[in-house]
Design goal:
This protein is an alpha+beta fold. The chain has helices spanning 6-11, 13-21, 47-50, 68-74; strands at 2-5, 27-32, 35-41.
């Protein structure tokens, strides 16, 4: 945990974000006149919602891979 005053937070905001992103600090407390008024932390994204989010919303045909070779040629992969 890092404590900074408002002026220091304004001046070094990018550096404070870098400290959070690199996990050197878990949170930054911003103080005014020595009293804590705000806390800056990383957003903890819930990836479980993203993975499988479209499950059950469409049906994949059995022959989906039938044209893979032709498509690869069109893109110059093969």
């Amino acid at each position: 945990m890092c404590k900074v005053n408002v002026l220091e937070a304004k001046t070094n905001f990018s550096k404070l974000l870098s400290l959070l992103e690199s996990r050197e600090e878990s949170e930054v407390i911003v103080c005014r006149s020595g009293n804590p008024v705000a806390k800056i932390t990383l957003i903890q994204e819930d990836v479980s919602r993203r993975i499988g989010g479209a499950k059950g919303q469409f049906v994949c045909p059995d022959d989906i891979d039938e044209y893979n070779d032709e498509i690869a040629k069109l893109f110059g992969v093969v």
